[in-house]
Amino acid sequence: MTILGRRSVAALATAGLVVAAVAGCGGSNTSKGAGGKTLTLAAAADAASLDPAKTAGGNMLAYLQPLYDALTTVNPDQSVGPGLATAWTYTDPERRHLRMTLREGVTFSDGTPFDASVVKQNLDRMATSNGPSSFAVATVAGVTVTSPTEVELALKTPDPALLFNLGLVAGMMVGPKAFADANAQPVGTGPYILDTGHTTRGDRYTYTRNPRYRTPAAYPFDKVVIKAIPDTNARTTALLTGQADAGIGAPARMDAAKQAGLTVTRQPGQVTGLWLVDRDGKIAPPLKDARVRRAINHAVDGPGILKAIMAGVGTPTTQMFAAGSPAYDPELDRRYPYDPARAKQLLTEAGFPDGFKLSLPSENAFVPAIYPVLAEQLNQVGIKVEYTPVSTNQLSVQYFSGRFPAFMYVWGTTQNWIDANALLSPTAPTNPFKATDPVAVDLLARIAKASDADQGPLYRELNAHVVEQAWFAPLFRGETVMFSAKRIALSNKPGQTFFSLSDYKPAG
Amino acid sequence: MITFLTRRLISAVALLLVVSALTFFLMDLLPDPGRGILGVSATDEQLASKRRELGLDRPVVPRYLDWLWAALRGDLGTSWTTGLDVADSIGTKLPVTLSLTLTATVVCALFGIALGLFAAIRRGIVDRSVHVLAVAGFAIPGLWVGILLVALFAVRLDWLPATGYVPLAESPVDWARSLVLPVATIAVSGIAAIAQQTRNAVATVLERDYVRTLRSRGLPLRRVLLVHVLRNATPPALTVVGLQFIGLLGGALVIEQIFALPGLGSLAIGATSQSDVPTVQGVVLVSVCVVVSVNLVVDLATGVLDPKVGMR
């Protein structure tokens, strides 16, 4: 959720969150044959604030990455590499003290040198700003400057997502002199600076080279323009007509894009599925029984729905963690084949031979076409669905308020710890009934203190447990479809779920 | 005249108060804006602190009065999501929406009145054709027309930009080009409405005794039309044009999305979905002001054209 943030709902509607997000997506402005030195991106959402302390991740990242470097860098496979911090180590076995060594010789675009005290000021500011990314540093109890190039972070609890989060908005370093007005006059150490004269908030953002940037060669474009085009059709048309060089397009128009000479890049996206959140059976008692939840998994035909409704753009799945991440286990995807007879049998064993009534919300913005199919498939095994239509305004808020025992949701998977906490922790706002079990709690506690190498097997154990307990009924992992002009070469590694600005190069 | 203006002004102020209060209280019924701003991962403490920061821990009535008092002094506050000054944001978006709606209204009025006149004078096959066209214009959804126009003129022929807006000050030619497709999309139904209204009004006037008398005294048709008929037929048409413009303000919401125009509609959609109360209030306030002004202008113009309409 984290990387998703506030606009996630909008992003969900249109495309892969994370992808959309980080990638931000964009294109090149006046593009048509504009000499290749301008990159114009079409973004799926407008920037909120250009001040990291007031901004979420997700779609917002694209607007911030040109301006700011973060302490770490999130790699395409979601592992973490050096950023403004070149090295780090936990100094205690409990992993509650993190020492970070900082890059030397870095200056902000206003000439202020970057050092340890700047890091402390930024992290303190992020923690107290009460912005959309503040939660990401909530585990940080304090920051100590131990030398001009070294800081130590004391943590309230071990946090396996911290280094990941410090590679996103929460770890972006703002020039201290610009704190008061970073939204209008942003100052960072990033490759570009904001060209305020050619920026219209809510419409287009223009970035020009930061003359003080240390390795300009990594960013071949002299100018980057990001156009905010939230409407998927409008964005797709802008891409088709060369008004932007790259951006997330409408999957239905992939063929048109190829015909128009665009490059289509598909990336794994969000997981669409039913969240069986009332697993203690507080308002829907049958859901308390794991056999009922497994029956629901067998009763819905994920591959069929994917093919019928999403034109097959995606992969059927039964698990909530990102493909290719440490927690992911391809074997698990075979756990619940579509099998209504098996579902009926499980329901009978659980004491519901005649099924039961299940109250679910429905909406008309994100996956409207799924609801009738879902109801029909569940009805086949005896589960009678009663839909309550809900407004798409702040949909997540309504879903996570505990009003519904289950709901269809589109989840942007991210780093394993972030997902594990959001989905399974009894304290997570995204776990409305605070339902969990001792196995999950124990595994979460062990992962928190485990070394990076030891975390993988534990994550897989946790994932297997969740799938076996059928706390979710995932249908498929969608795909984000990126349209880009031939003049742009887009690096795309297998499993990459988002694009960073440095992934865009001129072709040839 | 002065009484008329005073009365209109008082009713305008009342309207502004009612609409702004209604919006404010309705927005208050929405789920926690803090959740919308901070996202689903925010903790309860963060939410509580955000509520305090936004002043949401206070009752809604004093909050509304504070907003009203500030608005009266010209301070529309700061957006809860972007941190930008609401008045500034509206200042950059309003020209886009006005460019779109005013141009569309002028185009609709010109073509609509011309077609309506033509139909009323010629009657017969011309009249029936215009009638059929008008019905078709009503029936065809504007959205669909927009998508077709984009597919043809932007994607296939590459004559016009598919999306985006260029400020008039930057390049008048590009400004006009950026408006052609959105205006054409709106104009389809707008022209139909005005053409029908004009045709009926003119036809009615043409059948009046005084017109027949004027014609029988040898006045040329052109003079009768311009001086007498139009003058009497314009008020109803003008009312429709005014209504049309007000309708367009609402319709701009959709059109701005389709053509990625950064206008008030886009601002309103974004702000509403994020429960950004100060921005929504600002947009509502400005929209009501625009609507009230347009109505006033239409009434004044009607009064000037038709002395029978007393400005009391």
Automatic annotation (TrEMBL), chain A:
The residues covered by the Solute-binding protein family domain are 80-426
Q: Which Pfam families match?
A: SBP_bac_5 (PF00496)
Q: Which UniProt keywords apply?
A: Signal
Q: Does the keyword Magnesium apply?
A: no
In the record, biological process GO terms are: peptide transport
GO CC terms in record:
ATP-binding cassette (ABC) transporter complex; periplasmic space
Q: Which SUPFAM superfamilies match?
A: Periplasmic binding protein-like II
Q: Where is the signal peptide?
A: 1-23
As one GO molecular function, the record gives: peptide transmembrane transporter activity
Give the matching InterPro entries: Peptide/Ni-bd, SBP_5, SBP_5_dom
| Identification of the protein by name | ABC transporter substrate-binding protein
Q: What is the lineage of its organism?
A: Bacteria, Bacillati, Actinomycetota, Actinomycetes, Kitasatosporales
From TrEMBL, chain B:
Q: Which PROSITE patterns match?
A: ABC_TM1
Q: Which GO terms describe its cellular component?
A: plasma membrane
Q: Which Pfam families match?
A: BPD_transp_1, BPD_transp_1_N
Q: Does the keyword Membrane apply?
A: yes
List the subcellular locations.
Cell membrane
Q: Which GO terms describe its biological process?
A: transmembrane transport
Q: Kindly give the membrane topology term recorded for this protein.
A: Multi-pass membrane protein
Report TM segments. Answer: 98-120, 132-155, 175-195, 237-260, 280-305
Key words of the record: Cell membrane, Membrane, Transmembrane, Transmembrane helix, Transport
Q: Residues in domain ABC transmembrane type-1? A: 94-302
Tell me which SUPFAM superfamilies the record gives: MetI-like
Recorded family membership:
Belongs to the binding-protein-dependent transport system permease family.
Entry protein name: Peptide ABC transporter
